[in-house]
Amino acid sequence: MSDSGKWRVMVVDDDHIVLGALAETLSAEFEATVAFNGLDALEKLERYEPDLIILDVVMPCVDGIDTCRAIRKNVRFRHVPVIFLSGHDESVYRDRLAGLEAARVLKKPVSPAQLLESCRKVLDHSDIKSPARKRYKITELETLETRSTVPPAGGLSTATEVCTVRDLPRPPDLRRIEAPASTGTARIMIVDDDRDIISYMLAVLRNRFEAFGVHDPVSAIYKIIRYQPDLIILDISMPRLSGYQLSQLLRLNRNLRTIKFMFASSKDSAQEIAYAKQLGAADYLVKPFEPEALLEKVLAIVEAPDFIIREKAMTFDEIHRAESADSAPSQFI
Known about the structure:
α2 packs parallel to α3 and α3 packs parallel to α8.
């Protein structure tokens, strides 16, 4: 149990040099901790319990504003103060910041004195007047973290997916397809911007697994943390965040990099498939595909000796109830 008497500040930036400099500045007065991107920050929230979060606005894949929006969906951190760092004035982001309770936007470059003073003012005006006791000390948490690097770029194609549900055959009676016995029910997330493709895959998988779909890849960032999938099936070409990019984000966090993932895409070149394997994909499925092909590949992954079905914080029924009660438009299918 940590009781240092200091406020704990988490700073989130994809630039490791900037991140280190900010953390060093903050450590003069606060308990400073870091996250390397939005997904990394979301995964660390519950363990690190920051009293204040500093977010770089411009980050690849998932920017600071989308990260803040995901943080606000966590009840424990719905009102935690947030400071944004940006090269632009706050007026540029006024529409996107609406409803996010951002404390302020600091324009880069930010001097150490300005950063510390802004943190003091924000915390002085917060509803919590003193740092809450934390479950873990920063030193205890940081010993569990390991460094990793983004997989090398190259081989990514920007071509648009052309497969539609019309290309897919009708799912057969899947009771005819035999499968080995499993020691538990794997939870599978499908991320694809085509709702019809998701529906088709769910028809194949739902009678054997806890399968659900998300058509917005940015929303998937939050739902990966909340719903704890054991396997993620990713489309490659999606707006705002590609399957390649999402898989790379997973690999940057030590607790998420063990999640198995496979790609399902109409891209069928040897180069694409080789690149997917280089990123760590467990398999690659070319669209359009027969139901048996999807089920066969998923079963091969789930029944492999290194596949882990983790203990979940929420049951599948609880997930459905949470989605039904969510006031925001649901991306859950």
